Amino acid sequence: MKKNELLKRLRAKNGKRPYGAFIMLLFFALFLNAQNIYSQDKTITGTVKDEAGELLPGASVLIKGTTNGTETDFDGNFSLSVGNDVTTLVVSYIGYTGQEVAIAGQSSINVLLAADASELDEVVLVGYATKRKKDIVSAVSVIDLAEVEDVPAASVERLLLGQAPGVNVSTNSGRPGQNLDISIRGMGSLGAGNDPLYVVDGFPLESSNGINPNDIQSISILKDAASTAIYGARGSNGVILITTKKGTIGKTTVTLDVTTGVQNVPDNRRVEMMNAVEFGEFQKSSWIDKYIASNGSEPAESEIPAGIRNPESNTISTNWMDEILADNPLFTKYDLSIASGSEKTQSLISLGYLDQEGVIIKTNFERFNVRAKVDTKITDNITIGMNVSGSMTKEKTIGEDSRHQPVGLALWVDPREPVYDEDGGFNTYLGDRDTPGDLIFNSANPVQILHERKTTQNSNSLVANGYFEYKFLEDFTFKSTLNATLNNGRYNDFIPSTLSGFVWNRPAPNNASLNENYFESFNWSADQLVSYNKVFNDVHSVNALLGYSSQEATINSIAGNASKFPDDEIRFLQHGETSNVSSAESSWSLLAYFAQFNYAYNNKYLVSATFRREGSSRFGSDNRWGNFPAASVGWRISEEAILQDVSWINDLKLRASFGATGNNDIGNYPSLSTLGTADYITGGSFQAGKILSSLSNANLGWEKSEQFDYGIDATLFNNHLTVVAEYYKKTTTDMLLAVNIPVITGFQSTFTNIGKVENTGFELGLNYKTNITEDLKFRSNFNISFNKNKVLEIDGDNDEIRSQNSFYDGGASVSKVGRPIGMFHGFRNLGTFSSQAEIDASPTQDGAIPGSFIYEDTNGDGVVSYDRQDWVEIGNPHPDFVWAFNAGLDYKAFDFNVVFTGAQDYDIISAIQATTMNLDGVFNVQTRAKDRFRYTTRDPNATIPTSNYWKWERESNSWYVHDASHVWLRNVSVGYTVPVKESSFLDGVRVFVNGDNLYLFTDYVGNPEVNANGGISPGRDNAPYPLPSTITLGATFKF
Amino acid sequence: MKNLIKIFISLSMVFSMFSCSDDFLDKPNPNQLGEGNFYANEVHVHQAVMGVYGQLQGITGNQWLYSEMITDNTTIHFDQSNRGNAPNIESFEYWQYNTSTGRMYNLYSDIYNAMGNINLILSKLEGADIEAGAKAQFEGEMRFFRAYYYFLLTQYYGDVVLVTEPLTDPSAAFELARSPIETVYAQIESDLAAATVSLPHPNAIDASDEGRVTKGAALTLAGKLWLTRKDYGKAKTALDQVAALGYGLLGNYADVFDPTNKNHNESIFEVQFQGGNDLGEESGFIYNFYPRETNGEVTGFQGRSGGGWNIPTLDIIGDYEDGDVRKDISLSEGYTDMNTNDFVAIPFIEKYRYDHTIEGRPDSNWPIYRYADVLLMLAEAINEVSGPTGAYGYLNEVRSRAGLLPATGGLSKEAFRTVLLHERRIELAFENHRWFDLRRTLSETELIALLTAHGELERANQTTPRGDYDFSAGDYNFSAFEILFPIPERERLVNPDLGQNPGY
User: Fold this and answer.
1) Cα gap A79→A88, rounded to integer Å
2) Per-residue DSSP letters for A973-1038?
3) Is A683 an interface residue toward B (CB < 8 Å)?
4) E strand spans, B184-323
5) B174 contacts on A by Cβ (under 8 Å)
6) Rounded CA gap, A776 and A783, in Å?
7) Around Cβ A306, how many Cβ atoms within 10 Å?
8) CA distance A590 to B20
9) I need a labelling partner for B246 at 20 to 30 A (CA). Which of A206, A951, B416, B455 fits?
10) Choosing among A403, A671, A743, which should be mutated to test the B contact, i.e. which has the most B CBs within 10 A?
11) For the segment B115-143, what is each residue's pLDDT rounded down to a tens digit?
């Protein structure tokens, strides 16, 4: 079979009409008797083929100006009843030019579609309704899933990486099963969340957890307010619309996808730490420097403490990072789907299994997915469908982003310690030296932690949705959907007695402890929609939609911890000598009414308007409801007479939009005052005590965003090049900010609607496709996004927000008026003092010694003061621009695809460096510490400070800030479609090799997309789970 | 048309199923009570009052830093390997604190946080449905606490913002400036006067209420207030009233701190704790006072060591007279390493160290006021009014329990002052009196001289080893302005009109 054939069959499986789902039997019964109220007295049959004569199954055949119609069956045939007044059919198919066909009295029509045409007729899900691409007048990106089909994606976000301008996905951690960071058009909020809303088959969800990427049929991303306003209070960070695959008409298709591969952490992304001999030399030379500092001369060899005198005697050397990294851990994924259907009923069943071993030993992630989707036409005007999916994930995990977690420990623990004792058991307590001059901290053995500490996270999810759709009065459709999700999760962390403490000086055995949490959440929503579609006089196209939505979620949780277990074998809370259990419940609800109106004149002038009124339980009783209007206009200049003769312009559209959206991601009860607990004892008995723990604010309302968007969509040069360029300006006001108040009120902060943040940006997407020869096809795609973020207002009395971590964790952030959110904040480092004379001649810096950092006295008062008066911005975590480039070639049965991504001009603050370059001698240090300031040479140009102790070395300062600009060879894939005999039981086979996160060009050692804290202190590196490169082999079999 | 109507009706039904009532959006927080009408009855107000007592546990648990470690009584067990606390807790030992010091802010905010609850309860008492006797007691307690906290604030910060009404609308708080210390003192005075009337006699308190404040506490604080304001006549009047309430010294100094002997006859007010169970009411403070890096010799729990804070200085150890029974009860000069059998000369506080059954959950109460303090204050007041003659009896009552010879007559007023300060230092060691005592009884010059001498002593002969770490130039460098703590920078960022103490 030719590849074309296979592709067509693939596409046949992926019908184009997306649906939301779950059944509403009540409505079903109500409407069952409803009659067909318009006449259908003529049947048209026909076939749809491409230019090569291949039949096109799954092509859409619609009565012009309506959404009424059918799809071709597996053999490309269709049959459609139409009214006598119907004169024209519209035939369309993804990747082909749509065509209008006059019926002109025929009862059998054969249609030939031109291949490789513009995709402008492609139908895209935009909010509650679908639109043709060419009719869209707002900022919507559609992900071309074919580009990412070989990527070993464990999550939905990975599919989006580099695929759309303005959609920034960061691989901030390599933890298996970890969701990636995603942000759409910059950070809009200082106080509330910045995550987009996910809408899966019409159901709004707060995360994409548990969704099998293989089940996804299409993804559209709504970026501007005109498209997201219909999601009201949850639209301001963008909306990701996901439609899952559905059944097909015709022959039952069975598809099996198998992917397997290995993962590894490339050497150039690893920080180089000292080995045992180097560390010994470091200790010895540090001791000598201290000696010189107090005695003014170098010590005799015999004066150096015996324990550190001979570094070369450290014959055992352990590279702890090597020890915790797994050897070629596997990535394995199986997906099986069975699609079948008749004209009336289509169904799809899919099963998925993912097993990703971690690149850190003893960690892994497993997911099982199952989905069943059925759509059925009860009568010609009634369609119902349901979609039930379940997922189960199991994760054996570890903590990250801390020097006390295994990855952090593996950097700094004593390299002179072996992993195992002579008797083969674990060396349980590292660095317990206790000899003069040897200061290294004691610690647990990270390899032993990974083997013996059991941290598991399991979650189960059941999502069910159903819809009932009724077409009436020819142009009206009523759709009712009901959705429900049941999630539960269990976290279990047992620390056995055999581990030494993670904090200092706790040799094993210690008290075993257990931490266990369980939660269950139930979330339902119901939507009622009435829509109207009509074309008047062939030129006025109108569609309108009215809807009502309600949603409610409740989360119950129970958490317990216990310690002092009699043994490590029985691991349940009640076996601990001391234990605590607590439970909690929280819930939220919302109600909304919305309307949408679209009008197009002659496919040339396009107008769209939406309005949503929404109420949320999260806000104060006086300010619960918000209004979210939006409007957009478009002008397809290419339809004007003057451009009709310009042959290189196929389509050109100018558009502009404005809209308002909201954000309610601030937890469930911020407007209410709460009473906390402060119990007491009197008369030797317990007395319950209550204190006010927050102030109420009945006026607390929406965080609002207003966004302007101006765009150009062009299709040029015989449909080879498409261009999308957009400029936007988004202003967020009334932010839900915990604002500092005088503590004399009893409280340090209270939630208020204040402040203003602006994001302005430019996005460009280019797509070029051409057939070089009949056998050689080229396709490429480039996108770039520039976003400028600026705080316009916080509050007169609170005009900066500082986020400070404990100082020895390095790195602080500040958000100031007039500046971007979360700039790095600290002392500006001017190098090192080379002599006492230089210190004396400089602004006073208490405790400074030769070799200590020179901090800038930025306020010029002659004192570098440690109360942070001299702190300034020292780095910017926001890239000037991010970009991605995809290129692909198809040659005969081979296909090839490569993806680059990059980000330019931004910084990361390395918090872990405050440990790995802490030269006190208590940690192992990076090999570059050899180049530190030495008292023997006193190099005035040294940038690494002395190992002699001096104060405040680890305060946040510009030494910890690093440029993280990078280019990433993100993905390469090569596929081959295996020739299959017509007679074979197989319909098609494709095999591929894929390399993911392959090679990084950057000066930053580590992962340039780390984000340990998130929120308004972005760009902090604190020893995350390392990100692997992955090489996979895969195959797709069709039966 | 019939169909149209049918559809219309059906649609209406669908919409009405999910009625648009606002009730659907009312989501009270099921985990917590709201302020709402909480303060309306006795059960709830009792809980709110207990909440204020509960907050006292936390505030008291941190006072050692501001009242002992800052003085010559205690120092730190220097942590050579972890310098992380240098800019925060250690800055009090070295007088390196500044407007951004974290613990400085905690001190300020914890007290005002408690004040918020006190003012809220006082404002709600009027309208609450509570029996008169209980209402009077609640009011007396709240006014005592308000006085107690404002007294702490004035001693630490000088002029402070005086808030006596709940500020549930925070916008009003941005307007409030600091009041002169005399105005705050006047408020304390009036609160104490009211509290003294409303609070029960110590013998009249129900057994189930044991541990709550009584007249004794209010009068003791009044005595302290007047001593501080140098109105020694009023001080003596108040303290005489305390003495008349029937308190007496226990025979044995150790019994004063013994958790099996809580709320004894010498105790005027102590913060209640309870260990050995899961109630969360244990007192954790002694874990801060244990030396670091022990194997459990001091804590009694294998492998568990302490924070290494509030370590008795060589200076105070040397200040005990020979034969003073209080020395070994109050402190240890070191411990024996269980592995090497070597003596480790890291001193630590002994007076709160009692065996407890569950690691981390000691049972000890914390003494706020006790009768020995009252006796020494009476001696102080009498000496200041009319010289030492009538004061020896009070002093010697305390000395004789300590196994010491009575102080003999013939001392000048100044010399007696010095003797009394010494006696207070030893008798009330590590009970958070030292800083206020020094500030009250010494002139600014004397105070600076004493602290500078302490700094020089520590620089020359440290109580705990510093390894290779030199002092920096700014360590132990005490200036007159540092007698008052800085108003935290954060508060001045929020309210730029809030003044600062000079020097910061």
Assistant:
1) 15
2) EEEEEE---TTSS-SEEEEEEEEEEEEEEES-SS-TT--SS-TTS--EES-PPPPPEEEEEEEEEE
3) yes
4) 267-271, 311-312
5) 741-742, 797
6) 24
7) 10
8) 10
9) B416
10) A743
11) 999 999 999 998 899 999 999 999 999 99
* pLDDT score, position A502: 66
* B393/A800: higher pLDDT: B393
- Smallest Cβ distance to B358: which of A578, A587, A747? A578
Structure tokens at B416: 């007696």
Instruction: Report the C-alpha gap between A462 and A387 in whole angstroms.
Output: 11
Interface contact A624-B22, CB threshold 8 A? yes
The CA distance from A956 to the nearest CA of chain B, in Å, is 13
pLDDT at position A805: 56
Residues 961-980 on A with a CB inside 8 Å of B are: none
Test the A interface: residue of B80, B472, B490 with most A CBs within 10 Å: B472
Residue appearing with tokens 């199986």: A334
- What number is the average pLDDT over the span A507-534? 91
Cα separation, A560 vs A240, whole angstroms: 36
Helix (H) or strand (E) holding B462: none
The two structure tokens encoding residue A708: 């302007």
The answer for residues whose C-beta is within 8 angstroms of residue A327's C-beta and 6 or more apart is none
Predicted confidence (pLDDT) at residue A12 exceeds the cutoff of 80 = no
Residue A31, pLDDT above cutoff 50: no
Between the CA atoms of B196, B198, B203 and B204, what dihedral angle is there, to the nearest 10 degrees?
A: 170
Locate all alpha helices (DSSP H) within A576-733, ordered by sequence.
Answer: 641-644
| B292 with A505: Cβ contact below 8 A | yes
pLDDT at A85 over 70: yes
For strand A382-396 and strand A454-472, is the pairing parallel, antiparallel, or unpaired?
Answer: antiparallel
Rounded Cα–Cα distance for residues A15 and A24 (Å): 24
> Contacts of residue A530 in chain B, CB cutoff 8 Å?
11
User: What is the model's pLDDT at position B8?
Assistant: 52
Euclidean distance between CA atoms A373 and A382, whole angstroms: 17
The pair of structure tokens assigned to A799 is: 């005009």
* Å between A949 CA and nearest CA of chain B: 6
Contact B238, B226 (CB under 8 A): yes
Q: What single letter denotes the amino acid at residue A479?
A: K
pLDDT exceeds 60 at position A242: yes
Asked if the model's pLDDT at residue A594 lies above 60, the reply is: yes
Return the residue matching tokens 């098609």: A988
Residue A132 CA, chain-centre distance (Å), reads 27
Residue recorded with tokens 């999260």: A618
ipTM of the complex: 0.92
Q: Show the tokens assigned to A8.
A: 């067509």
Give the pLDDT confidence of A158-212 residue by residue, as tens digits.
Answer: 999 989 999 999 998 999 988 788 889 887 777 777 889 999 988 888 788 888 9
Partner residue opposite A808 with nearest CB, options B38, B84, B173: B84
Q: Average pLDDT over chain B, rounded to whole?
A: 91
Smallest CA–CA separation between B303 and chain A, in Å?
6
Selected residues 834-873 of chain A with any CB under 8 Å from a CB in chain B: 846-847, 865-868
Rounded to whole angstroms, what are the CA distances from A438 to A230, A304, A431, A641, B17?
Answer: 65, 11, 9, 85, 75
pLDDT for A837 equals: 94
Between CA A243 and CA A221 the distance in angstroms is 12
Report H helices in A220-300: 225-228, 276-295
Residue B26 touches partner A, C-beta closer than 8 Å: yes
Q: Are A634 and A654 in contact (CB under 8 A)?
A: yes
pLDDT on residue B15: 54
Contact state of B86 with A951 under an 8 Å Cβ cutoff: yes
A376, A344 in Cβ contact below 8 A? yes
CB of A672 within 8 Å of any CB in chain B? yes
Here the tokens at position A242 are: 């996901």
